[in-house]
Amino acid sequence: MASHNRDSRGQRLQPLAAALLAITLGFGMASAQADDLPKIPTKKPLKVGFAQTESNNPWRLAETQSFKDIAAKCGWQMVMTDANGSNSKQVSDIQSMIAQHVDLLVFPPREEKPLAPVVLQAKKAGIPVILVDRNVDQSVAKAGRDYITFIGSDFIDQGHRAADWLIKATGGKAKIIELEGTTGASAANDRKKGFDEVIAKNPGMSIIASQSGDFARDKGRQVMETLLQAHPDVTAVYAHNDEMALGAIAAIKAAGKQPGKDIQIVTIDGTKGGLDAIAAGELGASVQSSPFFGPLACDVAQKFAKGEKVPTWVKVSDRFYDKGNVQESMQYGY
């Protein structure tokens, strides 16, 4: 990975994209082939639909920007929508793009089950689909059969890494509050699964409360305030993203406790706010979950258009941030 500073967002995407292109074949050794799915036209510009889930946090804003930044270079004419946190709005946005006959659909499904049927609708209409960040219910729509691929992190592994750090940081003894992401989202489901299964193997560690903060800072703060009152003996927090962790930090301070001392906190994302909190000693660690999917989606689409095999899961490799490397890693925050 490149380690030198990059001042502009466009420049920063290049080393990140190169680092993230650690492609594995995921579960099973399946791959999507051009004959199995709707084809991507080789014309330029391509009309590409990007249906965002919401734009209420730095992660989503950075993800959207990565598509805007790569569009001209990739030869894409973008059609962009924002579902404002609504599954039904995201489905409607995608159906509108299907009606507009876009050449390619790229989107992060807000939740696994509600967004799976619209993937099948796109396939029926002859429009290829690439999913980024979050996946859909594989029993309804399957990668390599109904859509090209899922580009994203191993959320279960992220949960494992967060749990491993917390066990070491607390000496294997902690009473944990877990702030879950959006109910039904693949990221929330798998980050919980990965973390919980590691914690379950450590008898000194116990999850005393677990509740959704919907990946939002203010909701995370509100939930943490309530849970602190119910569980004043809490000694650790695991938040499914940085925004909820930052909300939890505010709630902990308001309760007269010191985050990072009285209560250890581990999270996932690697936002600038999260890295700043690590540097301040309030947040213990954050597993990176990169939002820069634009360059990756462009690369995958071009390969598929040429008839090359594409893995059904393009797995993103994630960094890990703690007090030991946070200063040198500030360039990767967003």
From TrEMBL:
Query: What GO molecular function terms would the record report?
Result: carbohydrate binding
GO cellular component, as recorded: cell envelope
Signal peptide residue numbers: 1-34
Query: What is the first-listed, main subcellular location in coarse terms?
Result: other
Q: Which domain of life is it from?
A: Bacteria
Q: Which UniProt keywords apply?
A: Signal
The Periplasmic binding protein domain is annotated at: 48-309
Q: Which InterPro entries match?
A: Peripla_BP_I, SBP_2_dom
**Compartments, as annotated in UniProt:** Cell envelope
Q: Which family does it belong to?
A: Belongs to the bacterial solute-binding protein 2 family.
Q: Which PANTHER family match?
A: D-ALLOSE-BINDING PERIPLASMIC PROTEIN-RELATED, GALACTOFURANOSE-BINDING PROTEIN YTFQ
What is the protein named? Ribose transport system substrate-binding protein
Q: What is the lineage of its organism?
A: Bacteria, Pseudomonadati, Pseudomonadota, Betaproteobacteria, Burkholderiales
